[in-house]
Design goal:
Order of helices and strands: HEEHHHH
Strand order of the largest sheet: 1-2
Distance between the termini: 38 Å
Strand content: under 5%
Shape: globular
């Protein structure tokens, strides 16, 4: 597993909250190397946000992201929708039911 780049993660979270597409890292723009490993199986809030940011930044298409991470299109779109409606914090697994209940 690659080491956590906390500065890039903090900036990523701020960029997503502001709903911007140009996510910056220490060395410039987001790259595929900044995204979670393709064999990721534990989807924490930060990793979900990184994948959404990668698609929004044009690093890969939604279909490529779904294939790379073995996600359904519905699951990926739900991540995007939760970010758009409630911010990155909504991707926290323990909070998903709370946010979904509010939408009903």
């Amino acid at each position: 597993m690659k080491p956590l780049n906390t500065a890039a993660t903090s900036r990523l979270r701020a960029e997503l909250e502001a709903d911007t597409l140009g996510v910056a890292t220490d060395d410039g723009r987001l790259t595929l190397d900044d995204l979670p490993s393709p064999d990721t199986r534990r989807w924490v809030m930060r990793r979900k946000a990184e994948v959404v940011a990668g698609v929004r930044a044009g690093l890969l298409t939604e279909d490529e992201a779904c294939r790379r991470y073995d996600l359904s299109a519905e699951e990926f779109r739900s991540w995007q929708d939760m970010i758009d409606r409630h911010g990155v914090q909504a991707l926290r697994v323990t909070r998903l039911q709370d946010y979904r209940r509010r939408e009903d």
